[in-house]
Amino acid sequence: MKQAAQLALMVQLPDDETFDSYRCELNLGIVSQLKAFIEQAPSTMHSFYLFGLSSTGKSHLLHASSTYAAQLGKSSVCLSCAELKHLPVEVLDGLEQIDLICLDDINLIAGDKRWQQAIFDLYNRVLEQNNCLLISGDESAQQLGISLPDLVSRLSWGLTEQVKPLDDDEKITALQHRATQRGLFLSDEVVKFLLNRLSRDMGSLIKSLDVLDKASIQEQRKITIPFIKEVLSLNS
After folding, report:
1. Residue 61 in contact with residue 30, Cβ under 8 Å?
2. 15 and 111 share a domain?
3. If you count DSSP H runs as helices and E runs as strands, how many of each does the chain have, helices first?
4. Is there a single domain that holds both residue 66 and residue 149?
5. What pTM was computed for the model?
6. Do the Cβ atoms of 134 and 126 come closer than 8 Å?
7. What are the tens digits of pLDDT across the range 62-113?
């Protein structure tokens, strides 16, 4: 059961979510800190907790960190608590042997005592192995609603940074950069249209870009405003 569960987590990281593709001036200091944290691992600092509102780019930073660790020849894994919480806690067994473990959205296990205990135990095993944990959540450690005091304490032990949201100009730049990586061109007019007509959070915008990318390839058409209206069923 454990092996099957671990195999289910073996997913490929998004190839467009790297430190180079991260676009937010306010968070460049966090990128530098993450790089240093990964480069210096193992060190006396074994954990890094990132928190911020939904769609501020936390998942992007975790994916980028895992990719960066691999580039440095370190073993890494990036897991989402959205998936973990549906699996047996034994899936974490043995992960402490990995140089960098990234756990996304720890807030999603706030109401699950078994998973809180399992992550606390993983924390301790990682410390014993002199490896590192990078964890994200939507609130500070004290405000997550986690009922296990020892886990809250662990989250507060290491480095902690709050991820700031992108402004509209940064969202435009980020979407255009992602489009360019996929061989697409998005004019300023097109991106502003997406911002004005869709949910403005980056997660939703990127999902919409994925849909447009696939439709553009399938129909061999450029991404224009009429094409967006057609594909995303937006009324004029």
Report:
1. yes
2. yes
3. 10, 5
4. yes
5. 0.79
6. no
7. 999 999 999 999 999 999 999 898 899 999 999 999 999 999 999 999 989 9
